[in-house]
Automatic annotation (TrEMBL):
Residues 147-300 form the Aspartate/ornithine carbamoyltransferase Asp/Orn-binding domain. Belongs to the aspartate/ornithine carbamoyltransferase superfamily. OTCase family. Its EC number is 2.1.3.3. GO terms for molecular function: amino acid binding; ornithine carbamoyltransferase activity. Keywords: Cytoplasm, Transferase. It catalyses: carbamoyl phosphate + L-ornithine = L-citrulline + phosphate + H(+). InterPro entries: Asp/Orn_carbamoyltranf_P-bd, Asp/Orn_carbamoylTrfase, Asp/Orn_carbamoylTrfase_sf, Asp_carbamoyltransf_Asp/Orn-bd, Orn/put_carbamltrans, OTCase_ArgI. This is Ornithine carbamoyltransferase. Carbamoyl phosphate binds at residues 101, 128-131, 261-262, 289. The keyword Endoplasmic reticulum does not apply. Its main location: cytoplasm.
Length: 305
């Protein structure tokens, strides 16, 4: 049974296959065609944190594919009413896929150990693989390719930037990240990326202007992620020089696009001017969550038979 816990689970060719299914389904949907490729399949959404995009895009994507979804919040008692083993063995008899949004990545890997259906990471503290697939799908649509394109991320070395770095490494895009001291991507992760993708180019700096130089896409995320609310004030000080504003966008490649996973704290990590500029692709990017995830669901069902 194949899972998508992080992009370490997928080869470059497999990501290309997912993009190809996603693009095909997106083009068909634009003509009003909804192929029932997952008729009778059921997806559970096991969420410990809030979500707009991930939840709604998975549920609507699954409906368009002829399958159905169950939202599983607090009431199923995950981790509270019974052992992980009992929970996993039981729930995976009912479901074909579980999309899981959890406070810690270990919770999702533990769930996968005890389940016999496919587990898809819908965001953990460490990774957000479905987001990174939609991100690169958006860049590919814009520029026609990913190979050799420079993508810059300005901000926290978090779940979103970790997945984006890995996605770029897998797809041959250059990745530069500018973070304040103490908030960089961690070395064990970077070593793992290097081992998985020896030809990858991931650059870390503390200078946002150095990161965006030559970049065709500039990306940012909130300074304090879900679960880090107590650090908000301290992080606002640390990240004060890391705002994506017009001056920083002007230092990127000509016609560089702006990306953000959303939700954004407008006026903090990014200005309204950049969010709402002609070069902003935040809405298309959020739309691609659904298309990319339909690609993931169909691809996983092909692998799992
Ligand atoms: N980008 C993203 O995952 O959004 P949600 O938290 O709304 O799902
Ligand atoms: N880094 C953010 C992303 C939200 C989609 C968080 O984890 O809260």
């Amino acid at each position: 049974m194949r899972n998508l816990l992080s992009l370490f689970d997928l080869s470059t060719e497999e990501i290309e296959a997912i993009f190809s299914i996603a693009a095909d389904l997106k083009a068909k949907l634009a003509k009003g065609v909804r192929e029932p490729l997952l008729q009778g399949r059921v997806m559970g959404l096991l969420f410990e944190k809030q979500s707009l995009r991930t939840r709604v895009s998975f549920e609507t994507g699954m409906a368009q594919l002829g399958g159905s979804s169950l939202f599983l919040g607090e009431d199923v008692g995950w981790g509270k009413r019974e052992t992980p083993q009992d929970f996993g063995r039981v729930i995976s008899q009912y479901l074909d896929f579980i999309v899981c949004r959890a406070k810690s990545h270990e919770r999702v890997t533990e769930l996968a150990e005890h389940c016999t259906c496919s587990i898809i990471n819908g965001l953990t503290d460490l990774f957000h693989p479905c987001q990174a697939l939609a991100d690169l799908m958006t860049v590919q649509e814009e520029f026609g390719s990913l190979k050799g394109m420079k993508i810059a991320y300005v901000g926290d070395g978090n779940n979103v930037s970790r997945s984006l770095a890995l996605a770029c490494a897998k797809m041959g895009a250059e990745f530069a990240i500018a973070s304040p001291e103490g908030y960089e991507l961690d070395q064990p992760f970077l070593i793992r990326v290097d081992q998985a993708c020896p030809d990858s180019f991931v650059k870390m700096t503390h200078d946002p202007f150095e990161a965006v130089d030559g970049a065709v896409a500039v990306y940012t995320d909130v300074w304090a992620s879900m679960g880090q609310e107590a650090e908000q004030a301290q992080r606002e000080v640390a990240f004060a020089d890391y705002q994506v504003n017009k001056k920083l966008m002007d230092a990127a490649a000509k016609d560089a696009i702006f990306l953000h996973c959303l939700p954004a704290k407008r006026g903090q990590e990014v200005t309204d001017e950049v969010m709402d500029a002609k070069t902003s692709r935040i809405v298309e990017q959020a739309g691609n969550r659904m298309h990319a995830q339909k690609g993931v669901l169909v691809w996983l069902s092909q692998q799992n038979g």
